[in-house]
Amino acid sequence: MMKKRKNLGDIGNSALFLGPTLLFFSMTVLLPFAYGLFLTFNKMDTPADPVQFAGLLNYISAINDQEFWKSMWLTVRFVVATVFFVNLVGFGLAYLVTSGLRIQNTLRTAYFTPNLIGGLVLGYIWQFIFVQSLPALGTKLGISWLELGWLGDPTMAFWSLVIVTIWQTSGYMMIIFIAGLISVPKELIEAAKIDGAGPLKRLLNVTLPLMVPSFVVTVFLSLKNAFMVYDLNFALTAGGPYGTTKMVSMHVVNKAFIESNYGTGQAEAIILFIIVAIVTGVQVYTSKKMEVQA
Amino acid sequence: MFHFKSNTGFFKKTAIVGIVTALSLSLAACSGDSDQSASGSKDSKISIIVTNGKGEIDAQFKQTAKDFMAENKDINVQVESVAVGDPMNVFDKLTASGKTVTMAMFSPFDATHKYKEVGMDLSGEKWNEETNDAIKSEDGTIIGFPFAIEGMGLVYNKQVVEKAVGGEFDPYSINTQDKFKELLDKIKSSGVEYPVAYQTEAWSVSNHYSSLFLNQSEDPNTVLKEVTDGKFDYMKNDVWNGYYNTMDILASEEYNKFGKRPTGQYYDAAHVAVGNGDSAILFNGNWAFDSLKALEGSDFGFMPVPVDNDPENPLNNKIIAGPTQALVINKKATEEQQDAAKKFLDWLVYGEAGQDFIVNKSQIISAFKNNPNKVTNPLGIAISDALVENKTLPFSTNYINTGDWTTILGPEVQKYIAKQSSRADLAKAFENYYKSNKE
Quick one: which of B71, B76, B41, B60 has its CA closest to B340? Predict the structure, then answer.
């Protein structure tokens, strides 16, 4: 009798805590994902076309799409650049604002604020900076490499994207790092100090190993964000100049909705999903192994 | 203990399955509901569904449908607008859900390609007398009602140009490349360092500018046929080359504000520069006016894009204008519905309220000569004047697949502008696109 009541309570509990999340997760992720996967096996130009089975045709044309792999490679380079710098800058900021500066609370707010601005708005603001403000500054001060708009040069346009991404996301990573830094036990630091370890040694050998759980989260988030970047790409460079900064998400959207090749675009999106899932899976698995106990 | 645990798992799973089932049931119920309400038409009234492809005039369109219904009590018009930025056509959505759209708004290209099976013959309609811009199918049958006219050319700032030429300026006097260069030099010597602010958005340099050469035959379809059949020799074609010669002038370091690095997100910067008189000329259409952020008292107009040095060449003497949205009546609708839709079209052309809706309320350039109203946008006025004076060429963009051109050919044209590829490379890119895209 007792057991039965407990089980019933469990159902209630499950429904109460899991239900709402599960409902919205299914509605916004699971069902569309399953339906999207189903659609890749059909011949479709637009999502509203009648369903007509086509086997693996969409996957074959996706794999043969050179532009897709070109934009994928570009995205990988973007991922490497942003993951490295976002975490470096984020950790640096966190270190700075936990070091006991008098204005550290103000700084925390200031560094976090860019994260509250949406990618589209941010893109248009920075477009103004790269196209008009910096060149104006360059002309005034006679700095020749600043005189021209950044977004017209493939390399500079790429780094513009990286810079804005760093500016936007390192504040968010900073918050996670702050939580990690605060939870590093003080006595361990003190013990290291007594043993004669300098600031650099203390950072490398005590703080960083204990921060691995934070890095697992931040690297995962920045990986995922960088692979999926679209809004910033769209608003800042629109893939230009001459298609050199077209990230993979933009290629997928163009393929599916602008070139009216929905089946192929959707298949490319699934391939992208698989790649991101593998990369982030490996990252989380291997870096979890690096975690140490204090 | 073990037994107990596994039991919990079982119940958890049951709960999950239950929730998912409930969820899918509720979703199914939702879609079922909406179907029911739409098909239930009112007894003696004729119900028609009209799709509006211009989401920005949704309120005006719905109001005009109400006005129409007040005059025609036996007809019920249901307007379905696209949401601005929604990639899915509202026509597809409604058709997929089992409804028959009586009258749909398509781009002329879609009306004659993707939806060519939809439109019925409208050749017998009276309004054809008042317009030259009805949309024809490939065999020449009129299938589309021209709903909105738009136009493009070289947008110029009147104050700056008039100051440079010293008095009244006739945009149609610039009918050769040499005269155009001469004008640019005059503007330069009047103190404007860069007379042109050339913006290089992909859709502008490809869909708009790079389709201009189709107008070398009176019916753009003639050249287009050669192009799609892969028989068009770009490099040997004077008009095709001529337009890129003009583009070279527009993008040159000498005249272009952004000439040192000509591609790179200059849309806003270019429009503001021409709007406030820092530069004088850019290539765009009547919609550019919103971005010009014009100073008070300034005025703007269009001049033709010169292609060679023959002042008699019509391409040098006309601007581009044509329908960018067309209304098509569905063959599959009942005859009563089709007649009701035709009545609505007549009302848009001949009814005072209909004319007022198109031009004054929606600020759309009317394709019909009998419409006495004028839009307030100076670039729109320039286009309606050109229409009346017969100084327009077909809107060449209507003949191409704009989606593909933007994403596939746009970057190629930008590459040419940035001097990363030669004109022969550009010709090759066009050739390859049409080779890989045989339809």
Answer: B76
